[in-house]
Specification:
heterodimer; A: alpha/beta; Aspartate Aminotransferase, domain 1; 3 domains; 17 helices; B: alpha/beta; Aspartate Aminotransferase, domain 2; 7-stranded mixed β-sheet; 3-stranded antiparallel β-sheet; 35% helix; globular
Amino acid sequence: MFREPLLFESSRPGRAGVPIDDPDVPPVDVARELGAELVRDDVPDFPELGELDVVRHFTRLSQWNYGIDSGFFPLGSCTMKYNPKINEVIARLPGLAGVHPLSAEADIQGVLALACELEAALAEMAGLDRVTLQPAAGAQGEFVGVRMIQAYHRARGDRQRTKVLIPDTAHGTNPASAALNGLEVVEVKSGADGVVHPEALARLCDSHTAALMLTNPNTLGIFESHVEKLAEVVHAAGGLVYLDGANMNALLGVAKPGHMGVDVMHFNLHKTFSTPHGGGGPGAGPVAVRNALAPFLPTPVIRREGDRYRLDDEFPHSIGRVHAWYGNAGIWLRALAYIRTLGAAGLCEVTSRAALNANYILESLRDVYEAPHGRRVMHECVLTDRRQHDFGVTTSDIAKRLMDYGYHPPTIYFPLVVAGALMIEPTECESQETLDGFIETMRAIAREAETEPGLVTGAPTRPIVRRLDEVRAARKPRLRWTRSG
Amino acid sequence: MLARIGVASLEELFEGVPAALRSRAELKLPPALDERALVRFFASHAAENTSVLSSPSFLGGGAYHHFIPAAVDALSSRGEFMTAYTPYQAEISQGTLQMIFEFQTLICQLTGLEVANASLYDGASAVAEASLMAARLTRRDKLAVSAGLHPHWREVLRTYCEGVGVSLEIVPLDASGRTRFDAAPRECAALVVQSPNFLGCIEDLGAAAQAAHAQGALAIAATAEALALALLKSPGELGCDIACGDAQSFGLPVSFGGPYAGFLATREKYVRQLPGRLIGESVDAAGERAFVMTLTTREQHIRREKATSNICTNQGLCALRVTIWLALLGRRGIRRLAEINVASASYARKALTRAGLALPYSAPVFNEFVVRVPGLSGRLERCRAQGIQPGVALARLGDAHADELLVCTTEMNTRAQIDALVRELAA
């Protein structure tokens, strides 16, 4: 494929993409209207391009990307499932995309009704009582959940609880979210069998424990089989249990976090509920809680009174506002469309098929790639490069070689507790034929590693660029274009 | 497939879940809908809302209705952009990576600063992240926050600051509607000022920077109406250290408040404390120019609890729309659009004044301003009856603004719409 210059390099003086006609109000001299000292002359070097230039530029760039629409995307922990096109149509309905967040209450009844319906559906899946749709992403959901836990303890006069227990298999956002709330992180080691054991947890619990932040199933794809006992241990010490809902795709209709002793959790709508990842966002991270934590929900909350809805920000124990408005509505509307399309039976089938696909891959590859935990997994599995290491081939090489075969690589080097991890999450969306094609390719790469390792360590050769020089990028950061270069 | 796994049924796959925890009953959810029924369901709820796309609106206050060229939707809908992941695998993410590099450059050009991140959730979280960054840089734990900062943004800022023990002190406005920088408290990490501020008044950012620097604080310039950056002297040129805000005006529909795109720009010397994703230029193994995520040791997936922030996404798709929108409008287009906004507000202000209504604040405005309307609630009802969304009654959002209405006029408002608004408010 061809190179594509930056917008600034293609710019030609005088070109414009869209014509802007004169307004029908009288024109003004802005320097006189505002004061010359406030007005800038120009935005130097801002691009000047025709519409067709812009269309071709972004079309070309898109062709250098790999999306779910391009092919199989077994990225563990990220749940790269198909994003139904109808959901895009729904989010763009003029009566939804055109709703201003400060419109009068009477003008937003439809969107509030939809928000309420989604909150109820998420509460049902969580087995918890109340939901806020405000958090703009999973990490903001964690921030909100941890903050509510803090508020809960403080409201009980329990001010010494400054520690959050986080298993070594957790996402990096969990410790960072605890730190953003001024809390101290205590790592919990998982056992050799890949799960957290109540005795190990009990040794770390005391009167300073604010919460346990758990991911279940964990990042090895294994259900935390002692979860009820873990919750008991934390509760007995006076702490609460937070669930990172990143892996809810394994639980829909199978088990409810609320029944496991979880007090607070967040959902990642861009994972479990099919909203597009968009090259890194926007996401949405609704939080569900037990009634005991409801007084601390962020403002505002939606109240239903008869057949009318209103936004209420008059409750004194709230942790306050975390979003300027009521979350990423354009995203949570898509998630509701997904839930309404599938219904209860469809969602349950999502989880069954996701588990079927993950276990199928695991069983089809464990004779050529090391599987660190022998047991059955739920929605994702972890393999390693241990056997390939003997031939000088690493996880990173395997990932890059997959690109040459037209696949997106799995998540690599995560979870951190597994050396050289390849974390594979196929999702429910893929057919057996697609999985067989991927399995065959992974086996081919394992053979290449033995017979022609250079093919793997020199990969990729087929994408638009070869491996990147990341050291150079970080040593002398060049983070924007300038005319002088 | 079951045979290869060695189980007899799908049920067996879940035997790792203790029996006591297995759900026995089906989820209690409304029945599934096929595509036709789904559209009917959403369309019927959509019809219960009032849309700025189908009736005249003068609503602003942090969410702005602007022109979106057709090419923005067409290009941003491409599946290769929409269904891609965070560009960790640079070789097959060059489209997203180059686009964000362009986004970072455009934000630098507009703000007059040297480095911008790949975007944050929204303007409110951008102000919060900017403020926490200033607290880290100065090792101070107090912020001077202009009373002109959007009240919701201020609340979000408070929520973020409470967690790490940073306090807020509010700096009042003067009678003209601008911040009294001389009243800022001492020993602050930063002076946070929004321009145009929540009342629409354009602040003197040069004076803000001087006041901040005089006490060793950083000057943070926030903006909710990013289009003003196309016309007004940039925060960087005026000496501010951090510029942040919401880029929603650049191609994102109002969409009941989200998703939008926060931006955050600063001086190069502060880059190590900048939160969020950054894309840098490098070369590939063949020596060709290529783009890659860089300086990731600031981020949560590497640094965990010692990261500059817990943020782990940017607003990729929103940043894409912003980049396409800015490219389509271009150097002259953004200026022209900004000038039309000023002209519309100027026309509306004159017409309201002629009709006998008072404009309580005298500072210059961009496209938004306050008008005092005696008997406001009755007037609002009249506007509604005419299908007009007349603006934001300030009493809804705070204290002491009885009968004050925040009116926003953009290039989407025709002269006839403005005349109708004046008629209903003043008659």
